[in-house]
Amino acid sequence: MLMIRLRRGGAKKNPIYRVVVSDSRKTPKADYLEQVGFYDPNQEPPEIRIDLEKVDEWRNQGAGVSDTVQSLIHKARKQQQQ
């Protein structure tokens, strides 16, 4: 099954995350199919950039979403409405 989840990057104690579509059976460090967003918790306020159209396409194809990414998608939709 495909999952939309976070992939950690950045330096030690300075994480930056990519929102990626990957196989749920593989580790988060494994190859991914597509990057659909970006999340930087180090900024104030945290920077969230997610391509919601791509996320909706992958979800329509049956991809699952991790809990953390689900909350980020919710926040991104709120930002888009403002």
Describe the structure.
The chain is an alpha+beta fold and 82 residues long. It has one domain (2-81): S16 Ribosomal Protein, Chain: A (2-Layer Sandwich). 29% of the residues lie in helices and 40% in strands. It has a five-stranded mixed sheet. The N and C termini lie far apart (34 Å). 22% of the residues are buried.
Put the structure in a nutshell.
It is built from two helices and five strands, in the order ββββαβα. It has helices at residues 52-60, 67-81, and strands spanning 2-11, 14-23, 34-40, 47-50, 64-65.
Roughly what fraction of the amino acids lie in strands? 35-45%
Instruction: Output the number of helix runs.
Output: 2
Q: Average pLDDT across residues?
A: 95
Biggest sheet layout: 5 strands, mixed
CATH architecture group name: 2-Layer Sandwich
SSE pattern: EEEEHEH
First-to-last CA distance: 34 Å
| Overall shape | flat
| Tally of structural domains | 1
Q: What kind of oligomer do you see?
A: single chain
Radius of gyration: 12 Å
Structural class: alpha+beta
Unreliable residue runs: none
By DSSP, the count of extended strands is 5
- CATH class category label: Alpha Beta
Helix content: 25-40%
Strand order of the largest sheet: 4-3-2-1-5
